[in-house]
Amino acid sequence: MVKKVEIHAQSQKLPGSEAKLSPKAEMIREDYRGSGKLAGKVALVTGGDSGIGRSAALHFAREGADVAITYLPNNEDEAADARSIKALIEQEGQQCAIYPVDLRKAENCRKLIADVVEAFGKLNVLVNNAGTQYPNEDLTTLSDEQWLNTFDTNIHSIFFLTKAALPHLKEDDSIINTTSVNAYIGPQMLIDYTATKGAIVSFTRALSNQVAGKGIRVNAVAPGPVWTPLQPATLGDYNPELLENFGHETPMGRAGQPSELGPIYVFLASLDSSYISGQVIHPNGGTMVGG
């Protein structure tokens, strides 16, 4: 059982650092045993250096997959987090490649997919997980630049990457998109972020209808409050007090840990979910949402 941890007011600067997170997030349960669910597979996890993406990458490796991850370029905290998860994946006996990439640019996304396929010989699982948020409580002061950057990061990158990856995916391969509970509850201080997460839900459903006949599954995960570096680097930077008892509003009364999401990505990447596509899974501490 994952125990509630005390989270207190704090802040970081974007993009945030896993190493500086306090308390440390749990990436994988000590008792999690892999069973080869992803043996022989190659997975690409964007934003795999920290948080939910880091946990997904580590769980994939424990299930036998080789993993490529991306992280933001020109940032030493990101690079250090990427090197540390690479080492953990290699300790699992799997290969890992790390790529510093600005996913907002289509040409970078195309090159990334080509590089991963060249390095590993194939691609079976694409996890579109990288994202950002910038709190703002008054739409009239939300800058055009912030709006465009949030969309470029959170949804346009998914289009670019998925478009480039699809020619390499075959029957029983999968695409997993990270959306958010916020797409369903609409927090007033995250309008641009929430809009992109709603777009991810709709993109997931429509793309699933387009490719399900080819045996490619497309699903999404909509986390509730999960303890990752994004929280102190965005909410905490805006107002550190927002992180006091972070996650207390959920029915479970606590924030989730990345270790509670990694197995969901394994499920959606593996044949355990062979009859599931176009769906959204809601690890959110018991919050009731529609859809």
Number of domains: 1
Helicity, as a percent range: 25-40%
CATH class designation: Alpha Beta
**CATH topology category name:** Rossmann fold
Following the backbone from N to C, one meets helices and strands in this order, namely EHEHEHEHEHHEHHE
Beta-strand portion reads: 5-15%
Profile the largest sheet: 7 strands, parallel
Summing up helix and strand content along with how strands pair, one would put the structural category as alpha/beta
| Uncertain residue segments | none
Indicate the mean pLDDT.
Answer: 97
Biggest sheet, spatial arrangement of strands: 3-2-1-4-5-6-7
Shape: globular
Distance between the termini: 27 Å
Determine Rg (CA atoms, Å).
18 Å
Number of alpha- plus pi-helical segments: 8
The number of distinct β-strands equals 7
Q: CATH superfamily name?
A: NAD(P)-binding Rossmann-like Domain
Query: So, CATH architecture?
Result: 3-Layer(aba) Sandwich
